[in-house]
Write a structure and sequence with these properties.
12 helices, mainly alpha, 275 residues
Length: 275
């Protein structure tokens, strides 16, 4: 007897078939975006990186003001999210946002490792330069935030090299890369704003160790002239946090993401013309 259509088996089967095309479409979209980002000329790359530092600097500004006025870290962390909203709406770029999209393009042989390293180095440098300028203006314009700036910067400068600080950095890299993944799952601007607010709140509220954000906080403390740490402390914190950020972004999010579409990875690598 012929089994009638619409049974439970028929309903269960299409679910996976619907999910797989969606995953493949998302993979292809990420590869295309990554190729564009890796191929970006130096001047646009610098400008988006500088704007990224400015956007995060605005978030730091709001964090310090609210922290100074209320003494409430979680409320200040919520105020910080304006920086990541600006980051999204201005289409600027943060160093740790580049652990998913351009990496996908390199894996698919739509870009090279040299291009990826160039993207990382230029974006990080531009973020830090703009962040330093923002920290300087904040310190000069708002003397009432000096105390909280020194306190916040000192916290990250003295984390040191330990498993605790490393895992704080790993978690920060994973949170930001997950933010990127969530935003790339939809083209709706309204929906993309949700992870921008939620994940940036997690980042600051949990005091995770983020290379760019925490550098700007340390810059603010240093520029007050009252900090109990120096630029060498900042440099050590930057290197250690950046390492953990890369591990968290690449292993906990991007690597697991690639395991969901191994056939597409193999196909794109066979078709790729670079690498």
């Amino acid at each position: 007897m012929t089994r009638p259509s619409g049974g439970s088996d028929d309903l269960a089967a299409p679910k996976g078939s619907r999910e797989e095309p969606e995953l493949e479409e998302a993979y292809d979209r990420l590869v295309d975006q990554g190729h564009e980002r890796l191929s970006r000329p130096l001047l646009p790359l610098l400008s988006t990186g500088l704007l990224g530092g400015v956007d995060v600097g605005v978030g730091v500004l709001m964090y310090l003001v609210v922290q100074a006025e209320t003494g409430n870290h979680l409320l200040a962390s919520l105020a910080f999210t304006v920086g990541f909203v600006a980051l999204l709406l201005a289409s600027s770029e943060l160093f740790t946002e580049n652990f998913l999209v351009p990496v996908m393009a390199v894996v698919a042989k739509e870009g090279t490792l040299t291009q990826l390293l160039r993207l990382w180095v230029v974006t990080l440098a531009a973020n830090l330069v703009a962040g330093y300028a923002m920290a300087g203006m904040i310190v000069v314009a708002l003397p009432d935030v000096h105390e909280v700036a020194v306190e916040a910067g000192s916290h990250y400068a003295h984390l040191g090299v330990s498993w605790r600080s490393f895992f704080l950095a790993v978690l920060a890299g994973a949170v930001i890369t997950l933010l990127t993944r969530m935003q790339n799952a939809t083209e709706s601007l309204g929906v993309r704003l949700v992870p921008a607010v939620l994940m940036s709140f997690v980042l600051v509220g949990a005091q995770l160790f983020h290379s760019v954000l925490d550098s700007i906080l340390m810059f603010a403390g240093l520029l007050t002239g009252e900090a109990d740490y120096g630029y060498l402390d900042w440099l050590g914190a930057l290197g250690w946090s950046a390492l953990g950020n890369v591990v968290g972004g690449l292993v906990l999010v991007t690597g697991l993401r690639l395991l969901r579409v191994p056939h597409r990875v193999a196909e794109s690598r066979e078709e790729g013309q670079t690498g």
